[in-house]
């Protein structure tokens, strides 16, 4: 089937690696724990002194003090701004779960209305940590809740009144907490993972665009340098010719003059080749290209000898049968990289040939990319344009992240294009990229008009 272009990315394992932990701010964890410590201490004191319940304050306050001591240790100046990896963050949150579990054990277990706070650490974990880590913390939370349902210190008395909920009520509380742990952590992890995937995919898109822009800038600089160095090299060549002609053959400098002439000619040849390779022909390196030429330039680096790539132009006439002038398009890194990715994808999965058709009208400019492969699978077609919809090992042995189509679509949409994916009736994938003509040709028309007015 036709699938995503899946290239190995140099930041694999940092961006886009599904199921990996995200670093967590230690300062934020410390702040959350200080809030918990203050809340726990205040609640114990209020219940004991204000509401007159006979709580064993020494042990619960000791548990709270241990949490405060750990926070003081973590707040040392050298560590205050640190970021924790997945393992360290999981240990911090596991401690919070156990600390709260011990506190609830000392204060009537699940009969305590604050037992709902057992969900807090695992909920935080679900937003930043990987699936295995979240599952581990969920199991720890459920185990703690189950122990608290069976084992805890007895309820305190108030004025000789015994407070004892029915076992059925305790079972209901246990069921609610366990269900909430599973649902809330699963829901939070799914939402957070989707956000992380989208963030990483846009980072990869930005990296691809930045790389393309750097290549384009270096090429333009090289071509401009070749253009500027042409005149000095011509002067050097002329002087070298004069020296070689006028020096006697037996002069000790004659051989040096011939060598200088040959090397200057070689430099001129190299610079001329460099300028032609950047410009794709005559003209200044920043000149606009005809639309069909830009499409061909985008696909040229991705050709393969066993696959025939046919470049064609569609019907470009108005209702009266008059030819419509071809748009002049800026050599844009976004368009070159986006179209190049889509054409490479078609070539990769084609059996024999790929047809790339550039067409334009007075309102629209479009590119149709059609291959003779088996086409997009129905499950992939429904999700094309999303990042990370596949993860497979390529022929090069690298793990790929399925970002090619997402990056291509994102870059092309930045230029005002609309990208659609379908399968042809006879099989094969069909990708259509359309721009409003004014989006990519407005400045080109202005430039053409200016040249016409100048008589060029």
What attributes characterize this protein structure?
456 residues, alpha+beta, Helix Hairpins, Heat Shock Protein 90, five-stranded mixed beta sheet, two-stranded antiparallel sheet, 11 strands, 56% helix, elongated, disordered N terminus, disordered C terminus
Overall description:
The protein is α+β, with helices and mostly antiparallel strands and 456 residues long. It folds into three domains: 24-204, no CATH class; 209-279, Orthogonal Bundle (Helix Hairpins); 289-453, Heat Shock Protein 90 (2-Layer Sandwich), CATH 3.30.565.10. It is built from twelve helices and eleven strands. It has a five-stranded mixed β-sheet with strand order 4-6-7-11-10. Strands 1-2 form a two-stranded antiparallel ribbon. It has a two-stranded antiparallel sheet with strand order 3-5. 32% of the residues are buried.
The number of strands is 11
The succession of helices and strands, N to C, reads EHHEHHHHHEHEEHEEHEEHEEH
The overall pLDDT, averaged over residues, is 75
> How many whole angstroms does the radius of gyration measure?
35 Å
Report helical residue fraction. 55-70%
For the biggest sheet, the summary is: 5 strands, mixed
């Amino acid at each position: 089937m036709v699938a995503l272009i899946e290239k190995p990315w140099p930041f694999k394992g940092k961006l886009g690696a599904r199921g990996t932990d995200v670093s967590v701010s230690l300062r934020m964890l410390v702040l959350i724990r200080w809030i918990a410590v203050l809340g726990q201490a205040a609640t114990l004191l209020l219940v004991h002194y204000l509401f007159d319940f006979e709580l064993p304050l020494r042990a619960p306050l000791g548990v709270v003090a241990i949490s405060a001591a750990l926070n003081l240790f973590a707040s040392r100046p050298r560590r205050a701004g640190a970021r924790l990896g997945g393992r360290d963050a999981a240990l911090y949150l596991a401690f919070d779960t156990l600390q709260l579990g011990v506190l609830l054990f000392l204060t009537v277990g699940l009969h305590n209305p604050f037992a709902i706070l057992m969900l807090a650490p695992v909920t935080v974990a679900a937003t930043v940590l990987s699936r295995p880590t979240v599952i581990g913390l969920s199991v720890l939370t459920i185990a703690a809740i189950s122990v608290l349902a069976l084992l805890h210190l007895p309820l305190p008395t108030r004025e000789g009144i015994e407070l004892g909920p029915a076992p059925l009520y305790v079972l209901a509380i246990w069921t609610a907490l366990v269900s909430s742990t599973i649902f809330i952590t699963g829901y939070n992890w799914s939402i957070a993972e989707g956000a992380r995937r989208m963030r990483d995919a846009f980072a990869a898109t930005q990296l691809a665009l930045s790389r393309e822009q750097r290549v384009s800038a270096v090429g333009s600089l090289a071509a401009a340098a070749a253009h500027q160095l042409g005149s000095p090299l011509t002067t050097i060549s002329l002087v070298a010719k004069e020296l070689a002609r006028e020096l006697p053959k037996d002069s000790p400098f004659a051989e040096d003059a011939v060598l200088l002439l040959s090397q200057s000619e070689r430099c001129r040849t190299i610079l001329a080749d460099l300028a032609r390779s950047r410009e794709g022909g005559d003209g200044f390196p920043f000149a606009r290209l005809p639309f069909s030429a830009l499409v061909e330039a985008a696909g040229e680096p991705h050709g393969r000898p066993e696959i025939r790539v046919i470049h064609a132009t569609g019907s470009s006439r108005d209702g009266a049968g008059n030819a419509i002038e071809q748009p002049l398009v800026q050599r844009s890194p976004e368009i070159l990289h986006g179209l190049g990715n889509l054409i490479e994808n078609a070539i990769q999965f084609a059996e024999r040939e790929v047809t790339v058709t550039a067409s334009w009208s007075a309102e629209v400019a479009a590119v149709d990319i059609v291959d003779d492969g088996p086409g997009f699978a129905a499950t992939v077609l429904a999700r094309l344009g999303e990042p990370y919809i596949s993860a497979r090992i390529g022929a090069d042995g690298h793990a790929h992240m399925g970002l090619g189509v997402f990056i291509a679509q994102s870059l092309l949409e930045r230029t005002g294009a609309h990208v659609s994916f379908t399968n042809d009736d006879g099989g094969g994938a069909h990708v259509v990229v359309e721009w409003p003509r004014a989006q990519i040709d407005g400045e080109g028309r202005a430039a053409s008009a200016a040249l016409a007015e100048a008589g060029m």
